[in-house]
Amino acid sequence: MADIIYTLEGGVYFNITNKCPCNCAFCIRSKGDAVGEAEELWFDKEPTFEEIKKAIDDYDFTNIDSAVFCGYGEPTNAYDNLIKSANYLKSVNPDIKLRLNTNGLSDLINGRPTAKELSEIFDVISVSLNETDSEKYDKITRNIYPGKAFDAMLDFTRECVKYCKKVRMTVVDVISPEDIEKSRKVCESTGAEFKVRSYAKGR
Q: Apex CA 110: angle with CA 76 and CA 112, to 5°?
């Protein structure tokens, strides 16, 4: 079994699925089988909730005040396990702050609105903006919803802003400075905060 919980630069991360509707040109998954202190992040078989629950029970959360759901897949691709796992983690660690790193395509993946429910569980939602318009977004993310994904991601983000305490959109510093600034304006139109992520650091 691959690592379900791992650490990266001092942060605690949850790897609950390898499924993702995108195949991003810059995805860190293409650089190796693991990041941080994980040994292996590729699952031979997708983990069950019971396996994720056991990983939580076995992990020492002493002095851990936050955790991030972000592994070698899109967490909302395992939506039921994501909700159950986040709720369980909060039940045994009531003060822990949870962040969801997502591509923002949950509504398309799950065929229904999901932003409100996710916002009620996660303290921070971080959406990968990646590019400035639909055409460029489809090209760099190589997603399975061409022509629809970009607008769906923006709509999801706007809904999260309505309900979540902290929402941000990110781009990776593999795009041009000009497109980073254009992305900043796209982000501002949703009401979310903006962050540029480092490709070299994997975060």
A: 120
Measured distance between the N- and C-terminal CA atoms of the chain, rounded to whole angstroms: 24
* pTM over cut 0.70: yes
Residue-wise pLDDT for 19-67, tens only, equals 999 999 888 887 778 888 888 999 999 999 999 999 999 999 999 999 9
176-189 CB burial, b ≥16 within 10 A, e <16: eeebbebbbebbee
pLDDT digits (tens, 9 = 90+) for 130-179: 899 999 999 999 999 999 999 999 999 999 999 999 999 999 888 889 99
**Whole-angstrom distance, CA of residue 162 vs CA of residue 40:** 37
Are 79 and 106 within 8 A, CB to CB? yes
Beta strands 66-69 and 124-128 are unpaired
Instruction: Quote the DSSP letter at residue 39.
Output: S
Task: Give the whole-angstrom CA distance, residue 151 versus residue 28.
Answer: 24
Residues paired with 8 in a beta bridge: 11
